[in-house]
Specification:
Blueprint: H1 5-40, H2 45-49, H3 53-61, E1 66-67, E2 71-74, E3 78-79, E4 85-91, E5 96-103, E6 110-115, E7 123-128, E8 134-142, E9 145-155
Parallel strand pairs: 1-9, 3-9
Antiparallel strand pairs: 2-4, 4-7, 5-6, 5-8, 8-9
């Protein structure tokens, strides 16, 4: 099947117009997203600056967490490269509003924090940077309470300049 030059030009124009519309829509989403974030949540800058886990949890949530078997964290027992340690957390708790990862011996304990919109599956995965062997803690906020799971991860090569 062959197409003529004019058919090709027509199809090309159609593709370019579609790409242009998609780009404009994307720009609109990018312009709206930061405003939506600013209206609903403030970036927890103070919590990310804390050196210890307890201080970071207090700065982020204002309360303490209790261990729960309903929070399942998957992390390797031994991480060969501390620069990219895969961790994930899932939970069977209902009304989950946030999930955070803390690394006890890192220069700053809070490694990541996620807001979980209502109606979404409470599951998060990330690759954390770890300076040395230490505990990784997942904090799940559900129903106004904090729940946690902790696992020690042995790091053979440090990821924070080690």
């Amino acid at each position: 099947m062959s197409i003529t030059t004019s058919e090709f030009s027509g199809r090309r124009r159609l593709v370019l117009k579609g790409a242009g519309v998609a780009a404009l829509i994307g720009l609109g989403v990018v312009a709206i997203a930061p405003q939506a974030l600013a209206a609903n949540d403030k970036y927890p800058e103070d919590a990310f600056k804390q050196k210890g886990q307890a201080d970071a949890i207090k700065a982020l949530y204002g309360k303490t967490a209790e261990p729960s078997d309903k929070v399942k964290m998957d992390a390797p027992e031994i991480a060969e490269n501390g620069a990219v340690v895969p961790v994930s957390v899932t939970t069977t708790l209902t009304d989950v509003t946030s999930i955070s990862f803390l690394v006890a011996e890192n220069p700053n304990a809070l490694a990541a924090s996620y807001r979980i919109p209502a109606g979404t599956v409470p599951s998060v995965a990330n690759r954390l940077k770890m300076a040395k062997t230490t505990n990784v803690t997942a904090i799940v906020e559900a129903g106004g309470k904090l729940f946690s799971a902790t696992k020690e991860v042995k790091v053979t090569v440090g990821g924070c300049g080690g």
